[in-house]
Amino acid sequence: MTESMRDYQRTKGKYILPREVYHQTIWIIRDYYRLKEEAEAILHESPGPSDGQPHGMNGISDPNAAKAIRRERLVAKTDAIDKALACLPAEYRAGVWQNIMYYNPFPVDSARSAYGKWKSRFVWEVANRLKLL
Q1: What is 15-81 written as a DSSP string?
Q2: Environment class of residue 10 by beta-carbon count within 10 Å: exposed (0-12), middle (13-18) or buried (19+)?
Q3: Do residues 29 and 131 make contact, with C-beta atoms less than 8 angstroms apart?
Q4: 92, burial (CB in 10 Å: exposed 0-12, middle 13-18, buried 19+)
Q5: Which residue, 77, 108, 83, 84, is CA-closest to 95?
Q6: Alpha-carbon span 78 to 44, nearest angstrom
Q7: 25 Cβ contact list (under 8 Å, min separation 6)
Q8: How far apart are CA 3 and CA 118, in angstroms?
Q9: If the chain, 133 residues long, is cut into consecutive pieces of 10 residues, what is the mean pLDDT of each piece?
Q10: CB-CB contact of 25 with 123 (8 Å)
Q11: Are 123 and 18 in contact (CB under 8 A)?
Q12: Which residues, at least 6 apart from 104, have a Cβ–Cβ distance to it below 8 Å?
């Protein structure tokens, strides 16, 4: 199966995205666990050793503020994914998630078209919450 078939976007319906936005959103969703780990790791980082030399004032000089900004960007992405997933009916969440994250086929407990509809809605919701539209 080609990459394009695995990342197929429906062509009809309310939740259609531009091709580039769709693929960008899919990959942000697939990056979910790394984003979560990185946001958690920022909380436990310690500052690097000082070299004792003065540095210019380009950028943020407060390392804690820089960490907070970096962490906030990561958390904003994972929160957008979590909130969009919560918009789906509970019975479709796992199937849609497994399909996007691991390329698994949709479960046979419901019509494939129903899963496709909810996947489209989920990806659209994430893109909308991340202001990619």
Answers
A1: ----HHHHHHHHHHHHTHHHHHHHHHHHHH--PPPP-S------S---HHHHHHHHHHHHHHHHHHH
A2: middle
A3: no
A4: buried
A5: 108
A6: 19
A7: 17, 123, 126, 127, 130, 132
A8: 21
A9: 62 89 97 98 78 62 87 98 98 97 95 95 98 94
A10: yes
A11: no
A12: 98
Separation between Cα atoms, residue 29 and residue 32, nearest integer Å: 5
Give me the amino acid identity at 3.
E
Tokens describing residue 90: 């509970």
DSSP 114: H
Taking the model in full, what pTM does it have?
0.84
